[in-house]
């Protein structure tokens, strides 16, 4: 479904990402792990056209989407780092925003489906996004993305700032989405959570892929964290 | 007392046109976070397009109105492409300076094509003066007020009932939220610019049709009135733009009556000065700005 080939990103002279490649199939979860500054967010933002691509290619369902802006990508949605909601919009308006240009009947159907997943939001439809708690705001960001009926969902630190219980609920929700056939690319600092969900893991360090492989064959979360912190060059840690 | 009420009535009518000018500024500022200094001169282009149609082809009010609107929108699209779309990133000052240059360019272009000091503009002839007991209301003032009210109501519908309005409000609230939600930010920004130009064109037409004559100074006049009304009402607040416009109109009308023409100008700028010192967030900006900041902090 998604293929990234030798993707490089530069911000001026800074090399944020160097020739990173990955693939992701339908109803598959790929976790991207790395320390701060490893290039995880840049990778996600470049896939959906929010960061400029210096070199490489991104294809989605066989179409070249390299550099295509998010509004032009049918089937791809993003849950950005920090949720990034418009605080003065209501929950209902935020959901409407996520749906894009659709007919009223289709909009109602999507809204019903999304609110079935997030019943708490249904009780807050007229509440402004800026007044929601952190957990609710995360749910709203997720719901907004799902209103676009994506086949590929990109998630950048979805549990940032959440309590462990709320973070676990977010990952339960992601597991349910995978069961429903969505492909998920998840950037997550909590390796314990991401290893529990992911089929495969991509490890980044200083903008380079240092390993990629099945989650089951990865070391446990603590060991993996140690490996990411380790200052030694470990090219192709796991293949 | 009758004079005071009469002045207030007149001031509210002309203030509604000021409110529309401020609304145009506010729409652009809200979405772009940049000031369009060429807003008034864009309206000037529209008004002179209407005046040309009127003087060369004896066109009636409706064609003149449409020409005014079209001229303002086309001139605004030119400004948007050069001073806003072409200058990306965090460059509000560059955009403002660039639009100031286009102000000079547009005004000079109009002055070259129309070298006379003043030109005639069609007026609302034949409409009877309205009597409300001891008070009078000029028919063009009534048209001005009702048109402004209808336009504001229409704008409210666009903002709250359409997808474009939702995109515009999102962009105004949080540009990044619009981008990550799949909004075509550049397209919404351009359409907002054109919408603001159309509102400004209507305001310009109403003002010109009320006076019956126009000069090339009208561009600067419209910029000043719109900016002052926006600042008095509260930067970035649509409600504030309307309140600021009405307040400016009423104060001007009272000052004109009690202090004369020169006193009116002094009072206008004194009002701006007082508003900036005592109420820097504007008449309506405080509550909105505070609520938005609080909401942003929570997110």
From TrEMBL, chain A:
<dbReference type="InterPro" id="IPR027417">
    <property type="entry name" value="P-loop_NTPase"/>
</dbReference>
<dbReference type="GO" id="GO:0005524">
    <property type="term" value="F:ATP binding"/>
</dbReference>
<comment type="similarity">
    <text>Belongs to the ABC transporter superfamily.</text>
</comment>
<keyword id="KW-0813">Transport</keyword>
<keyword id="KW-0067">ATP-binding</keyword>
<feature type="domain" description="ABC transporter">
    <location>
        <begin position="2"/>
        <end position="231"/>
    </location>
</feature>
<dbReference type="InterPro" id="IPR052156">
    <property type="entry name" value="BCAA_Transport_ATP-bd_LivF"/>
</dbReference>
<dbReference type="GO" id="GO:0016887">
    <property type="term" value="F:ATP hydrolysis activity"/>
</dbReference>
<dbReference type="InterPro" id="IPR017871">
    <property type="entry name" value="ABC_transporter-like_CS"/>
</dbReference>
<dbReference type="GO" id="GO:0015658">
    <property type="term" value="F:branched-chain amino acid transmembrane transporter activity"/>
</dbReference>
<dbReference type="GO" id="GO:0015807">
    <property type="term" value="P:L-amino acid transport"/>
</dbReference>
<protein>
    <submittedName>
        <fullName>ATP-binding cassette domain-containing protein</fullName>
    </submittedName>
</protein>
<keyword id="KW-0547">Nucleotide-binding</keyword>
<keyword id="KW-0029">Amino-acid transport</keyword>
<dbReference type="InterPro" id="IPR003439">
    <property type="entry name" value="ABC_transporter-like_ATP-bd"/>
</dbReference>
<dbReference type="InterPro" id="IPR003593">
    <property type="entry name" value="AAA+_ATPase"/>
</dbReference>
<dbReference type="Pfam" id="PF00005">
    <property type="entry name" value="ABC_tran"/>
</dbReference>
TrEMBL record, chain B:
<feature type="transmembrane region" description="Helical">
    <location>
        <begin position="227"/>
        <end position="248"/>
    </location>
</feature>
<dbReference type="InterPro" id="IPR052157">
    <property type="entry name" value="BCAA_transport_permease"/>
</dbReference>
<dbReference type="Pfam" id="PF02653">
    <property type="entry name" value="BPD_transp_2"/>
</dbReference>
<keyword id="KW-0472">Membrane</keyword>
<protein>
    <submittedName>
        <fullName>Branched-chain amino acid ABC transporter permease</fullName>
    </submittedName>
</protein>
<dbReference type="GO" id="GO:0005886">
    <property type="term" value="C:plasma membrane"/>
</dbReference>
<dbReference type="GO" id="GO:0006865">
    <property type="term" value="P:amino acid transport"/>
</dbReference>
<keyword id="KW-1003">Cell membrane</keyword>
<feature type="transmembrane region" description="Helical">
    <location>
        <begin position="185"/>
        <end position="207"/>
    </location>
</feature>
<keyword id="KW-0812">Transmembrane</keyword>
<keyword id="KW-1133">Transmembrane helix</keyword>
<feature type="transmembrane region" description="Helical">
    <location>
        <begin position="141"/>
        <end position="164"/>
    </location>
</feature>
<feature type="transmembrane region" description="Helical">
    <location>
        <begin position="61"/>
        <end position="79"/>
    </location>
</feature>
<dbReference type="InterPro" id="IPR001851">
    <property type="entry name" value="ABC_transp_permease"/>
</dbReference>
<feature type="transmembrane region" description="Helical">
    <location>
        <begin position="38"/>
        <end position="55"/>
    </location>
</feature>
<keyword id="KW-0813">Transport</keyword>
<feature type="transmembrane region" description="Helical">
    <location>
        <begin position="12"/>
        <end position="31"/>
    </location>
</feature>
<comment type="similarity">
    <text>Belongs to the binding-protein-dependent transport system permease family. LivHM subfamily.</text>
</comment>
<feature type="transmembrane region" description="Helical">
    <location>
        <begin position="269"/>
        <end position="287"/>
    </location>
</feature>
<dbReference type="GO" id="GO:0022857">
    <property type="term" value="F:transmembrane transporter activity"/>
</dbReference>
<keyword id="KW-0029">Amino-acid transport</keyword>
């Amino acid at each position: 479904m998604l293929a990234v080939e030798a993707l490089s990103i530069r911000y001026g002279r800074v090399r944020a990402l160097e020739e990173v490649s990955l693939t992701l199939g339908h109803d598959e979860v790929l976790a991207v792990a790395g320390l701060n500054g490893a290039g995880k967010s840049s990778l996600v933002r470049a896939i959906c056209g929010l960061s400029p691509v210096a070199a490489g290619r991104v294809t989605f369902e066989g179409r070249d989407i390299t550099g295509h802006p998010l509004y032009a990508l049918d089937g791809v949605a993003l849950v950005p780092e920090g949720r990034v909601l418009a605080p003065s919009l209501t929950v209902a308006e935020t959901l409407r925003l996520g749906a894009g240009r659709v007919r009223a009947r289709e909009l109602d159907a999507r809204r019903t489906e999304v609110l079935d997943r997030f019943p708490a939001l249904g009780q807050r439809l007229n509440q402004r996004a800026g007044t929601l708690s952190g957990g609710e705001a995360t749910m709203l960001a997720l719901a907004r993305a799902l209103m676009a009926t994506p086949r590929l969902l990109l998630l950048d630190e979805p549990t940032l700032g959440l309590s462990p219980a709320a973070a676990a609920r977010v990952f339960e929700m992601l597991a349910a989405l995978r069961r429903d056939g969505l492909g998920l690319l998840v950037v997550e600092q909590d390796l314990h959570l991401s290893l529990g969900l992911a089929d495969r893991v991509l490890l980044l360090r200083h903008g380079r892929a240092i390993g990629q492989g099945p989650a089951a064959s990865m070391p446990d979360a603590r060991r993996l964290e140690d490996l990411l912190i380790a200052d030694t060059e470990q090219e192709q840690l796991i293949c | 007392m009758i004079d005071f009420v009469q002045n207030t009535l007149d001031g509210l009518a002309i203030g509604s046109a000021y409110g529309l000018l401020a609304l145009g500024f506010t729409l652009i500022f809200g979405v772009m976070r940049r000031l369009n200094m060429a807003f008034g001169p864009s309206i000037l282009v529209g008004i002179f397009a209407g005046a040309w149609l009127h003087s060369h082809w004896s066109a009636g009010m409706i064609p003149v109105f449409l020409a005014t609107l079209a001229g303002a929108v086309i001139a605004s699209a030119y400004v948007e492409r050069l001073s806003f779309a072409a200058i990306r990133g965090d460059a509000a000052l560059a955009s403002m300076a660039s639009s100031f240059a286009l102000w000079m360019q547009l005004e000079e272009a109009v002055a070259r094509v129309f070298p006379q000091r003043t030109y005639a503009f069609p007026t609302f002839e034949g409409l009877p003066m309205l009597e409300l007991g001891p008070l009078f209301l000029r028919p063009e003032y009534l048209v001005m007020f009702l048109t402004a009210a209808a336009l504001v109501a229409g704008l409210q519908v666009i903002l709250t009932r359409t997808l474009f309005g939702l995109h515009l409000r999102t962009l105004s609230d949080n540009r990044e939220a619009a981008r990550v939600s799949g909004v075509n930010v550049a397209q919404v920004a351009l359409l907002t610019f054109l919408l603001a130009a159309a509102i400004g064109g209507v305001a310009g037409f109403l003002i010109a049709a009320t006076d019956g004559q126009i000069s090339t100074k009208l561009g600067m006049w419209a910029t000043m009135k719109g900016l002052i009304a926006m600042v008095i009402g509260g930067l970035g607040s649509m409600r504030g733009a309307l309140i600021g416009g009405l307040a400016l109109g009423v104060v001007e009308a009272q000052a004109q009556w009690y202090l004369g023409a020169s006193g009116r100008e002094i009072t206008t700028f004194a009002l701006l000065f007082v508003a900036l010192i005592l109420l820097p967030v504007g008449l309506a900006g405080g509550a909105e700005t505070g609520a938005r900041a609080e909401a942003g902090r929570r997110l």
